[in-house]
Amino acid sequence: MRNIFNFIIKQQFFFLFLLLEVIAFILIVQNHYYQRSLFMNTANVFSGNIYESYSNFRGYLTLKHTNQLLSEEIAALKGYTRNSYLINDRNVFQYRDTVFQKQYTYLNAKVIRNSVYDRNNHITLNKGRKHGIEPDMGIITYNGVIGIITNVSNNFSTAISLLHGNSMISARHKNSRHLGTLIWEGYNYRKATFIHLPPHVAVNIGDTIETSGYSHVFPENIPIGIISDFEVKKGDNFYTIEIELFVDFNSIEYVSIVKNLLKDEQLILETNSKINGTN
Predict the structure, then answer these.
(1) Which of 14, 62, 124, 210 lies at a CB distance of 3.0 to 4.6 Å from 113, suitable for a disulfide?
(2) pTM score, two decimals?
(3) Buried b (16+ CB within 10 A) or exposed e, 17-28
């Protein structure tokens, strides 16, 4: 131990130099947009490669469970295909491109890093810019909402999880179709909170909460969870509703990234409406 202290004392100027270099580097990154952006992209690539290697190793240990999840997802997706509908009359179901315009496409991705115990949780995926991923794209599975893409590099992307303090998702009470907002108040990765639902709406434990489609990120009708408890707190004008999430965030491995093909058109129209409304 004495030798270590002696070594540090002898090399004190060298260690002081390293400390000052680190401080200077931090100040440059924090106060210059270009350097901060370059550092974030580099760190994203580096951490992404590490997480992907770890995830691949873990994947070999969970192949049976993964195959089961994929089989369930394929079965659920088949329920939305045309062949799943019984057509008794040719006038009941007609597919015409002029009526049914595709709005959303989906890209599969693998979760290579995920946190559930932080106050603000993030997810890293093995798809990035070269795969067509962009910020503000939604992430879902067959049974729920996962999060929203925030940062993208060539090969990887990171997202804020639904389990994030800044997460706010437009949702609705399935039975009544009334709108509200889904937030996460922390600590329990199986629970979320549904707010802004007026108390005149009849709700029951077990009712389903789903996406509303009132955003450019998620399609409507994606299941989120069921009501496990609710109350109107004293002095509030809305319900505070506890939601039990369908997704077990501690075991997600494969997800779908949602691309809204009409997002730009929608945003331009909404922006113009706000501008014209102020004139």
Answers:
(1) 124
(2) 0.67
(3) eeeeeeeeeeee
